């Protein structure tokens, strides 16, 4: 893999996180287009996930999706798949736990905070997915400036964030989604999410870091 | 080539394209080496923005607020670190509760951080309503929600049907009048229905019709020599729990304490005497005690007076001539004796109450000897029963006999406060509103069968639970649009199934709430409300320890979700939508709530909430208009302190100047006579006919004195052999905390209860009789419903009764509260088996001594 290939690879990762974040937001029009885009990046990053895309596209109607989305991720009663890290990483079924504050501190260390018009707890799945895409973006920018140290630092931050946050609760979370979803869209989204995030956690070391180091050695 | 990493904040900042708000999303664009990559890497983040300096100290700070986990309304401080509330303690600036906290306050934190909270406005998509119809809510914007509500209200106004609008209030702060009173009236409806009658209105009946105060009391326990608690458990529930817990060690040292309760409550477990009375027989015990106090000559003469010749003529069975007794600060003692007390011996009471004669006599004598520092603490127990008005009077009258009313070591009213009401609304009532407001109320208060004699007037008090029947029967009219806030009548009012039907029948229901509940299940629109303790402005008044406080609720943390405040911000936002639709009276009224400091009218919901609070508490914090109590140098100092304390209690000030018809403490209530005659006259009948209609036993003069009435239990003794003893869990937060894990884990703080269980407690004698063992899954069945829970054999309940705490049995609250959400509750809700019956004179719902049950093993 040369630098151009690596850049394309990292870009796919960033797009994948970005698309997943939109799928965990309230469903809106344009899903098919985004699914096609996701399919494309999955081919490169997690080919086994491609088979989930067709069932996500079938029978797509906004209303049942909204009802399912609300029951899974919003409420107002028992949230079927709470999209908050602390629910899975801590024992007392609350939001705003110590792990939430830790997530928030990670954002701050990267110069970010939860946007004030995004009214959710800091360890909400959308924020964690978007944070990953931001870290990858920074990594890409560093790569483009040939700042290898910074790129490696970004990869380290990604690795640690997946290890301690998103990657640590994605299995339990997606299991809840799969078991409780009434629509094929969310059942398959759960599979894709788990597959991609788990793969990516391994690939940060096995692909991204390894490639980068080999390029540095070559240089 | 390796570059030195830049400062990360600067790096991020350099990526920000100009013109993008720091508070909204981040737009990121790559600097673009290869054309493909550069184009593809432009994207935006919706959930993250550039970091700003943290608002709250990383080291943490104590910020003032108020707990509304029960009606103690303690002034609190929350420890906030990094914008997160970690823990709470009593506000050391409070003279009422000081640093003390009860267990409930701590449950506020997990309640706020409950993942099942309502996070955004939602609308129902399933048009069918019912217990088995999942509402299928979907998120909507605040605009869509408010516009839908505004359209429904405008439809009523256009059709001259504003009386078909209804506002239901549960728990509240004193900002309540904005939504409860002003909004309802200006829209044009008489139907603002409060929760008060499912709280403890009957408890106020006795004090009002003896000493002219329609209020809860404070008890000067630290100066008392005897504290006799009637169906009250101050260590767990009832008012100012944190304060009473904090001084109870001293109380136990200095005073004798006794508890009248069929169940061994937390307070009973600590007391000198437990009187495990048969349910509903409190009145018998009270009049027998009065009999003993009088025959033994133990009444407090400086308050009550004495026989002219100084010789006690009160002897069992013997009437006394009125002219032989000269009263001082009381009225009607001899009438009371002759009509009721003379034959009410301890022997008579022993049979009814199931208590030993010796104990009745001993408690009466010890209590009398402790005069005037002898407290009868009247809780909901003897009052919130069918016919409870007279239980409330009989038990409270003992305070009059021993002269503890308004006295050191006695029973006190609230101290004076200087809060003020919101600006007048009359100018904003148009013709539609005036016509709408003139209709009769949906709870049928003031009708012949519901005198509801609050403060002496027919129909002045609410009959909360009867509103369900009013809605179902469209009597006096149908309800088309209803808003409920911080309430859950489908859970908290007896015979819940009626509320399921009533709410299903209303075409458009809105619920403003922090947590979706059984009530929400029937809503068309759900609006997410801020958490009272940590996220909003407001104030409440509470009293104990000889002081009254005005304590502020303040937003100590930023709101996590898209929530607004029920009593202030949401009415403002709705008023804006109504104004857009050509009806601006409500908005113009709200705009008259000006900031007392600047004279500015509010321009938005947040300013409105703040100015309204500053207006209401103006005289407390502005030294220029100060009238008494704590003094501050301005709003900021008051806000930082969080609490204003009154002047100390003026003891005995009301002796001879009570707000009764006679100005005296009335053992023969001219005040009640006046009220009952007024109600009878309104319905062109006699007082006796009213009493008969309302299911009281008294006739003639008996109606005006504290007296014994037999309990009115629903159900045949043969079929339903046990009497239900409902009580309130120490952890309840009024039924709103069951979705926190601490609530379930710590349920065994209530005597005889088990963690993660909802137990019905049986005396082992009854266990044997009915073949029940601890741990058995059982059903309790009454004439109106059934519930499932777990049996527990425990000596702390009177044989013949089954005790069970209220609080569990949620089927629609969240992950923890329900065993299988929407389907199977965790334990059972007592209100499913308590029939909708009333103490009709006060309008109160009966919770005690009205349900017979049978037990079935599952």
Low-confidence blocks of residues of chain B: 1-24, 30-41
Largest interface: A-B, 68 and 70 residues
Looking at the overall shape, the CATH architecture of the largest domain in chain B is: 3-Layer(aba) Sandwich
Q: State the major sheet of chain A.
A: none
Q: What is Rg of chain B?
A: 29 Å
Query: Roughly how many Å is the radius of gyration of chain A?
Result: 17 Å
Distance between the termini of chain B: 77 Å
Query: Looking across the biggest beta sheet of chain B, what order are the strands in?
Result: 8-7-22-21-20-9-10
* Count of discrete alpha- or pi-helical segments spanning 4 or more residues of chain B: 29
DSSP helical segment count of chain A: 10
Q: State the CATH architecture of chain A.
A: Orthogonal Bundle
Instruction: Report the mean per-residue pLDDT of chain A as an integer.
Output: 95
CATH topology of chain A: TorD-like
Q: Which structural class matches the secondary elements of chain B?
A: alpha/beta
Please indicate the count of domains of chain B. 5
Describe this entry's structure for a reader.
The complex is a heterodimer of chains A (219) and B (858). Chain A is mostly helical. Chain A has one domain: TorD-like (Orthogonal Bundle), CATH 1.10.3480.10. Chain A has ten helices and one strand; from the N terminus they run ααααααβαααα. Chain A has helices spanning 3-23, 31-45, 53-57, 62-74, 85-89, 98-109, 125-144, 148-164, 166-180, 184-218, and one strand spanning 112-114. In chain A, α1 (3-23) packs across α2 (31-45), α1 runs antiparallel to α7 (125-144) and α1 (3-23) runs antiparallel to α10. Chain A starts with a helix and ends with a helix. Chain B has 858 residues and is an alpha/beta fold. Chain B folds into five domains: 8-45, no CATH class; 58-113 and 530-560, Phosphorylase Kinase, domain 1, CATH 3.30.200.210; 122-199 and 418-528 and 564-592, Rossmann fold, CATH 3.40.50.740; 216-412 and 655-669, Dimethylsulfoxide Reductase, domain 2 (3-Layer(aba) Sandwich), CATH 3.40.228.10; 722-857, Beta Barrel (Barwin-like endoglucanases), CATH 2.40.40. Chain B has 29 helices and 36 strands. In chain B, β32 (818-820) and β33 (824-825) form a beta hairpin. In chain B, α10 (282-295) packs across α14, α13 packs across α14 (357-369) and α21 (569-580) packs across α22. The longest helix of chain B is centred in the N-terminal third of the chain and has 17 residues, at 142-158. The model of chain B is unreliable at 1-24 and 30-41 (pLDDT under 50). At the A-B interface, α1, α4, α6, β1 and α7 of A face α1, α2, β3 and β8 of B. β1 of chain A pairs antiparallel with β3 of chain B, so a sheet runs across the interface.
